[in-house]
Description:
2 copies of one chain form a homodimer. The first copy, chain A, is α/β, with parallel strands linked by helices. Helix content of chain A is 39%, strand content 18%.
Amino acid sequence: MAHVLPSFPLTVGGGRFRAEYYLQGDEATARARAEDICIEQTIEFAPELVPPGGIREHVFGQLEVFERLGPDTHRAIVSYADELVAGELPQLVNVLFGNISMKPGIRLAWLDLSPGVLAAFKGPRFGVAGLRAMLGVPARPLLATAIKPMGLSATHLADMAYALALGGMDLIKDDHGLANQPFAPFEERVARVAEAIARANARTGGRTLYFPNVTGPFEVMWERIQHARQVGATGLLLMPAYCGLDWMRRVAEDDSLALPVMSHPAFIGSYVLDPRFGVSHAVVHGQLQRLAGADLSVLPNYIGRFASYSREDCAGVARGCQAPLGTLRPMFPAPGGGIDVGAFEDMRAVYGPEVTYLMSSNLHRAGPNLTETVQRFRARLEAFVAG
Amino acid sequence: MAHVLPSFPLTVGGGRFRAEYYLQGDEATARARAEDICIEQTIEFAPELVPPGGIREHVFGQLEVFERLGPDTHRAIVSYADELVAGELPQLVNVLFGNISMKPGIRLAWLDLSPGVLAAFKGPRFGVAGLRAMLGVPARPLLATAIKPMGLSATHLADMAYALALGGMDLIKDDHGLANQPFAPFEERVARVAEAIARANARTGGRTLYFPNVTGPFEVMWERIQHARQVGATGLLLMPAYCGLDWMRRVAEDDSLALPVMSHPAFIGSYVLDPRFGVSHAVVHGQLQRLAGADLSVLPNYIGRFASYSREDCAGVARGCQAPLGTLRPMFPAPGGGIDVGAFEDMRAVYGPEVTYLMSSNLHRAGPNLTETVQRFRARLEAFVAG
Lengths: 387, 387
């Protein structure tokens, strides 16, 4: 004899959202994994103790598609009731991949969200079109860079930013390692760099945007964001693996800020590295960032020092950033990590035309004068789009 | 010709902290990975463009130990200047494993933190001794359970909690899937369950603690925590993969709350599943949770439905929870996921005496009357400790 749950009616609206999973193992193993997802991600409870009726019919995940992709790989689509999510991003991720992240052989591959779930999310405030309008760049790939490294003073970093903006860099972000170190404390750094970029913009008539890296203890995160905006930051760099995807969403949706948001993937790679488990590149670097309101998503490029990402992985991120997702705006993938001018054209073929190239080391390697280097790289981008 | 960084003196205090990494590949490959960590995790920049002096000497990571563990596995210890962390938890994790999370063949295995870094963290407010004192349980393993599943009403969940508390359950938490669904809205659920547990405690003279699951949009997180405390919650369940480790730290350190914190590992498994990359169980479920102030860390047990965790993995978590870490208090590992009474003794051998057993489905399967089942299980725990 066991303790059986009470039986009672349950009212739900009928809307369901779907997630696609890749499952390792032969047919029996993979099917068992699919059925496990339906339970583990919803009731997380002994299913035999759930009486017929409400919970069984509406709360259990439902296996809608199960098919063979290869001898040891299967594909499943599982649907969930919209009500399980309650309009909250953490709970959406929790239903999609919370506990099963701890089980092998299951990969979350793609999200197919319902109107009921999507209604809770505003997505990118600016997106591709909004950023292009801010920058006055209608067609070519955008060019971005990071000021770095840790150890430079705020004045050094501001000088570097000035030289880069003078050359016509579209977006300048802080290195994601710049926090509040004594070398270049947050408030001083952001104020000096924002001022330097504004000065360069005034001189050239350009519109270089500045995305300071805002991290740190939650006690001061909001103050830092306010400070950044007050001293002239025109964007924000956030790292959702540390502050939480939902914090990025909250910042992106804030009308009193109304700043474009760039997400950085630090500490996020362990989700994607092995195709047999974890979460796909398209979801991690694309769909989730977009739901959380990022206008740009930094990712490691398939060429460069992060050779662990393939062309297909990166193309998947572009799909996650730009494939239809309700009324949410498309956003920019921003590949970086050792890319060079020689890769520009091939990268446009992989990511499509709506892409931001993030270059740092190879920009410094390309010549002694940063301003001239940026001018040259920008001209390359303009030429191959026109050509 | 390239753009070389300016040369200038850099003042640092000399304190350094250390991290242990396991590296895949033959000696040359593994050594290249170790050297890459020293650059990627600090300057993330072309090292040849950094002049001799300050940054090169103090900011670069330093490879302190490199040794062979097997034909294709090596071990490295890398040290970093305390100043890189600036006393902030997100930046500590960022230096330890930010960008290299996106590179294959590198696993963060163990943290050996310096006094300078540890000074920034308070760790568990209660820890093992504090929780034992609150509960009046000096020696035996603690018993915990979750009220679930999604779909039950707040009244149903409160009835379940009452029956469990009446039997002498030490800790009752919400299932981590209970957010703010229409079935059992957050405010009503937490108020009803807290009241039911207080009523049971008053009847028995017991001290069952209640850890509601506090999640949701950042716009209301703090209000929900306040509400939980006001209606009588005596602990909090948080999911750092969603709210951020630093948010948990901020909540745990808040003197106006002063509540014990249990961390739940939802969405965290992808870090640990493959020993060739990611982050060790000891760090993910142990050391990081402790730095962030958790008093208990839920993890999948080596016996049960998460068979992906080995005995050694779980013993590692116990070490991460309890090995010396400056003056930070030791905390409880709280293994769950399908464990049963038959596993109690073996689990105590694996985790040591300071452990919390988290049982749900098997507790409901063990008999029709939850109160009697809890009494029986508690007696088992008391007997085998006395015996």
